Automatic annotation (TrEMBL):
This is Cyclic di-GMP phosphodiesterase response regulator RpfG. Its EC number is 3.1.4.52. InterPro entries: CheY-like_superfamily, Cyclic_di-GMP/3'3'-cGAMP_PDE, HD/PDEase_dom, HD_GYP_dom, Sig_transdc_resp-reg_receiver. The gene is rpfG_5. One of its GO terms (molecular function) is cyclic-guanylate-specific phosphodiesterase activity. Residues 134-343 form the HD-GYP domain.
Length: 349
């Protein structure tokens, strides 16, 4: 039997805990506590996958408990969903600032809360799966685990999840082309594992640069572009250290060359056409698609159809024509995934 996911519910109101119990006890391993101190103690003994956390509690409030979780190396990967009657934007923002992964207001729809728990479990699985695979295949995991922890802070888990899904969809469609004998099940598996590491080099760049909203200077742009070389060096080191972990070689190629363009105008090496590894060409297209379909808080979600038309029209020379054809063929699936995440993000605002 597959392992049962573990939920820790923290609320000083027994009625609220009873509602949580009724909703989740049948399918999950559920722990119920009525205060923040006990929550941290229970979590240390048995780390939860998801924490359903009330905000207004005596002694340690929900914001303080969340900060403890996210600053603890053994608990930081638990997905924290704050469940509160506080509905003001300021309250939600404070929750996100303390590290919460999601925020649900009372009274909540049970189906919505259940769906949010499932989504957060899926996001968590990206990093859990990678850590487990590394442990299974290499035995020398300390540096890799630290790498994944740092990547978790630098890149949105949902972005990495989408890149993984989009890459699989696009590669699977391209596989139908008889000329693409390179794509087999092993390629698809390695692509799913490697694609979330495409921007791993950003962990070495300063937060001020990564978070800057204004237009970058030419010097800052050059510094940002170095993340491709840094990521490649990090992953090539892991290829040597963990030779049995076969997706690191593909990950290193993707990290270095996913900003190359089919017409030769990309960076860092100015490769063109078939000089660019196929996996890097795939991740370039889905990374741009994801960037253009992701909206800022308060803004209207971009229409995936407009993004599709832009990619196949105005900037088509940047991408492998076969990949653009494959994108058109599987566009309905890409759009479904995209709109699911757009709807989820809008619901969280």
């Amino acid at each position: 039997m597959p392992p049962v996911n573990r939920i820790l519910a923290v609320d000083d109101n027994p009625i609220n805990l009873e509602i949580i119990k009724e909703l989740f006890a049948a399918e999950f391993e559920l722990q119920l506590v009525d205060n923040g101190k006990d929550a941290l103690k229970v979590a240390q003994e048995c780390p939860p996958d998801v924490v359903l956390l009330d905000v207004m509690m005596p002694d340690l409030n929900g914001y303080e408990v969340c900060s403890h979780f996210k600053s603890d190396p053994t608990l930081r990967h638990s997905q924290v969903i704050m469940v509160s009657a506080n509905t003001e934007l300021q309250d939600r923002l404070q929750g996100y600032q303390t590290g919460a992964d999601d925020y649900v207001t009372r009274p909540f729809n049970p189906d919505e809360l259940y769906a949010k728990v499932c989504v957060n479990l899926r996001n968590k699985s990206i990093f859990d799966d990678a850590r487990t695979q590394i442990e299974d295949f290499s035995g020398a995991t300390a540096e890799v685990l630290e790498l994944l922890s740092n990547l978790d802070q630098t890149e949105s888990g949902k972005h990495l999840d989408r890149i993984r899904i989009y890459s699989r969809l696009l590669a699977s469609e391209l596989r139908q082309d008889s000329a693409c004998s390179e794509i087999d099940e092993a390629f698809l598996r390695k692509l799913e594992q490697a694609s979330p590491l495409h921007d791993v080099g950003k962990i070495a760049l300063p937060d001020e640069l990564l978070n800057k909203k204004e237009k970058l200077t030419s010097e800052e742009r050059s510094q940002l572009e170095r993340h491709t070389l840094i990521g490649h060096d990090i992953l090539k080191g892991l290829v040597l250290k963990c030779p049995r972990t076969d997706f690191f070689s593909m990950a290193a190629e993707i990290a270095r060359w996913h900003h190359e363009s089919f017409d030769g105008s990309g960076y860092p090496d100015g490769l063109r056409k078939g000089e660019i590894p196929l996996a890097a060409r795939i991740v370039k297209l889905v990374d741009v698609f994801d960037a253009l379909t992701t909206h800022e808080p308060g803004a209207a979600p971009p229409d995936p159809v407009d993004v599709r038309d832009y990619l196949t029209g105005q900037v088509a020379s940047k991408f492998d024509p076969r990949l653009l054809d494959a994108m058109l063929n599987c566009f309905d699936d890409l759009r479904t995934v995209c709109q699911m995440y757009q709807t989820e993000k809008s619901a969280n605002l």
